[in-house]
Design a protein that fits this description.
Number of strands: 33
Number of helices: 11
CATH superfamily of the largest domain: membrane protein fhac: a member of the omp85/tpsb transporter family
CATH topology of the largest domain: Porin
Largest sheet: 16 strands, antiparallel
Distance between the termini: 50 Å
Radius of gyration: 33 Å
Number of domains: 4
Shape: globular
CATH class of the largest domain: Mainly Beta
Helix content: 10-25%
Structural class: mainly beta
Strand content: over 45%
């Protein structure tokens, strides 16, 4: 291997002659690109600042490079020379005037490995910052805190321009629409210090004279005006322009929104009025969407929705939606898919839960309810929803909700709902928790009942994406209360609270560390039933855990308390041997496992999402650890003995509707112990209060749990 040293290529920005590669020589594939000595600027920023790039991972990896896999990128000598200048310029703009950039190029027959050697030198540091002309407009202390430069920092000229923009925006936000900031600096290269000066020319303070709306067709201009925070006669505010643009986009009826000053310059030194121009382009006001999908829990599913904007004028939105799931694995449209490919539903056959899930809903949203900060929604729905090994709920519901935008940009929603519900659960659940062990005594719990409930919640979303967040955070909380005081049935009385926090940290270019904490609790009053005092929480309101978006080392709803029932009326005939040479066919009854849920839940997830080399942005991987506990709270607030920790790995395939996700979780725990009952005529008879079945089958089926779904786990 021939080795070529090019050093020093640049000293203080003056390039020395670079070794010339003759035209006849073959082009060199860049198989390596590295930076050494850089501390002030990270390697990713340096790579994006130059034209030379290394070939893809498949080209650099010995086992795949010989077959020609991957994208090859070649060394361009002219651009390579310019890259040296680009790096020096980047460092000088960042305050490092004495930077030196050398290079080492290791050449083989058809490849090159490049290394940039950077000696940054000491930076020019900010010695003083002087801001004049802001007296009486913006507190100087606030500006010094907000600008991205401080005394003692390296003198970065990009941040210097940013600081001027920050001062200008702060002044314009206080009613000075034509404020300008003049800036200057003095650099002493001997002492490596800089003095920075900003001089404000605020101009006249102005009020909004008029709001001009352009581009509307079906939506009246007055609707646009009332939905924005800008009013005629109010002091001008730059941030109000941004909020107006955001609020109009939130309506969902505009494809384009631009809110600017109509005046490009003041008419004179005493001009104290401005006009605001709102330019909009209406989007499609009628939309029809249809889609199909598949998931390990829902099997095949379909969605159809139709929305109409500006219904009855005023920007109101009417939504009609219909969803159906468990297609092919739920009555009356069962086609045997519960055996394959929807094996997660196999144990549901013959139960009340083996029915098609559906939801049909109609909602009307009023975007201006007494003020632009408040919107209301009224909706009607009919649904059937089932949870694996838990319950099935049929409901007809009416809902009214009001959402208020707060001063902290935190929407708070309050709602009231009334519904006629029927909940079907295994009788063993009532026998275990309520000592109602006669089947006929458990039937009243499945009767249709009236549920009346109020809710209060908020969502603070600071993440950068709904489908695949890589930075920011999301905080949500909800409280629900059902009581006879609200008209609810005597058996449906409870108070429930849930809170969740998810945080996303970017690590490098496409790697994200994400974690989430979720917790909740339910309380219910003591009720008289069957001559005893019981605390009953409807199965549809209890907490369940385990699954693709919970603790992934468990199947859907399989973490937490369970009950088991031996059904002598169902089972399989198996062949067994009593003695050598003697075969006997025996009937083995089915044992049905049902999740009882709990009134206390704590879940924590940590996940590292990273790119897979050689596949671009289409395919990425994940390594995760999930922790959770679900239990029936007694005297102890938290029962750490119920905590389960399951690690795992996953793949993510990018799609337009979000990442398609494959996860496999490892579970090293024994099956959960719980009561074992046997059906004997009209009653359930307790066989074992703490029955724990053994695990059978191969290691993979005993310890690995597979999930397939669309969208990130959190």
């Amino acid at each position: 291997m021939a080795v070529l040293f090019l050093a020093p290529a640049l000293r203080c920005g003056s390039p020395t002659p670079l070794y010339a590669q003759s035209i006849e020589e073959p082009r060199l594939v860049v198989r390596g690109l590295d930076f050494r000595g850089n501390h002030a600027i990270d390697g990713y920023t340096l790579r994006t600042s130059i034209a030379t790039t290394e070939s893809s991972w498949l080209v650099r990896f010995p086992l795949t490079s010989w077959i020609g896999a991957g994208e090859k990128r070649y060394l361009d000598v002219t651009e390579f020379r310019r890259d040296l200048l680009r790096l020096v310029l980047l460092y000088r703009v960042s305050g490092y005037l004495q930077v030196r950039v050398d290079t080492i190029v290791r050449r083989s027959k058809d490849a090159a490995r490049i290394q940039f050697l950077i000696r940054e030198g000491p930076p020019v540091r900010v010695r003083s910052i002087d801001i004049s002309g802001v007296e009486g407009i913006v507190p100087l202390r606030d500006l010094l805190h907000d600008i991205p430069l401080a005394v003692g920092d390296p003198f970065n000229r990009i941040r210097f321009e940013w600081a001027a923009d920050t001062i200008r925006a702060a002044v314009r936000d206080r009613g000075y629409p034509f404020a300008e900031v003049f800036r200057s600096y003095d650099v002493n290269e001997d002492s490596l210090s800089a003095r920075i000066r900003f001089e404000l020319e605020p101009g006249a303070r102005g009020r909004v004279d008029s709001v001009i709306v352009e581009g509307t067709r079906e939506i009246a201009p007055d609707v646009v005006r009332r939905m924005i925070p800008i009013r005629s006669g109010a002091w001008f505010s730059q941030s109000a322009l941004y909020r107006s643009q955001r609020d109009l986009y939130r309506l969902g009826v505009f494809g384009y929104v631009n809110v600017t000053l109509a005046d490009s310059a003041p008419q004179g030194p005493a001009d104290s009025s401005v006009a605001v121009r709102v330019q909009v382009t209406e989007g499609t006001l009628r939309r029809l969407r249809m889609g199909v999908g598949y998931g390990t829990v829902d099997c095949f599913r379909g969605l159809a929705s139709w929305s109409a904007s500006n219904v009855l004028g005023g920007g109101r939105v009417l939504d009609l939606t219909a969803r159906v799931s468990k297609l092919g694995a739920g009555d009356p449209l069962s086609a045997g898919f519960e055996n394959w490919p929807c094996g997660a539903l196999k144990d549901e056959v013959g139960t009340e839960r083996f029915r098609l899930n559906y939801n049909v809903a109609a909602s009307l949203q009023e975007p201006f309810l007494f003020s632009r900060l408040t919107r209301g929604t009224v909706s009607l729905s009919a649904e059937r929803h089932s949870e694996i090994q838990a319950y099935r709920r049929d409901a007809l519901s009416a809902n009214l909700s009001v959402t208020r935008e707060t001063r902290w940009d935190l929407p708070v929603t309050a709602g009231y709902s009334v519904s006629l519900t029927r909940t079907f659960a295994e009788p063993a659940i009532f026998c275990s928790f309520l000592s109602v062990c006669r089947l006929e005594d458990a039937e009243p719990f499945s009767e249709q009942r009236l549920q009346s409930m109020v809710t209060l919640g908020f969502v603070r979303d600071r993440s950068n994406s709904v489908l695949d967040p890589t930075r920011g955070s999301t905080l949500s909380a909800e409280a629900r209360y059902a009581s006879r005081l609200l008209g609810s049935d005597s058996l449906i009385q409870f108070a429930k609270g849930v809170m969740e926090l998810a945080v996303y940290y970017p690590i490098g270019r496409r790697t994200t560390l994400a974690w989430r904490v979720r917790g909740g609790g339910i309380v219910s009053p003591a009720l008289g039933f069957g001559g005893q005092s019981v605390r009953y929480i409807p199965p549809s309101e209890r907490f369940y855990a385990g699954g693709a978006n919970s603790v992934r080392g468990y199947g859907q709803n399989r973490l937490g308390p369970v009950v088991r029932v031996v059904n002598p009326e169902r089972g399989d005939t198996v062949l067994s041997r009593d003695s050598p040479g003697t075969e006997v066919r025996r009937f083995v009854p089915d044992t049905l496992t049902a999740a009882t849920g709990g009134n206390s839940l704590i879940i924590a997830n940590a996940e590292l999402r990273f790119p897979l080399p050689g596949f671009g942005a289409r395919l990425s991987g994940a390594a995760f650890v999930d922790l959770g506990q679900l239990f029936e709270r007694g005297k102890e607030l938290v029962d750490f003995s119920k905590t389960r920790v399951t690690p795992g790995l996953g793949l993510r395939i990018a799609t337009p509707i979000g990442p398609m996700r494959f996860d496999v979780g490892y579970n090293g725990y024994q099956p959960e112990a719980g009561p074992l009952y046997r059906k004997e005529g009209p009653e359930l008879v307790l066989l074992n209060p703490l029955y724990r079945p053994g695990r059978s089958g191969a290691w993979v089926s005993r310890h690995l749990v597979f999930h397939f779904s669309v969208g990130q786990a959190f």
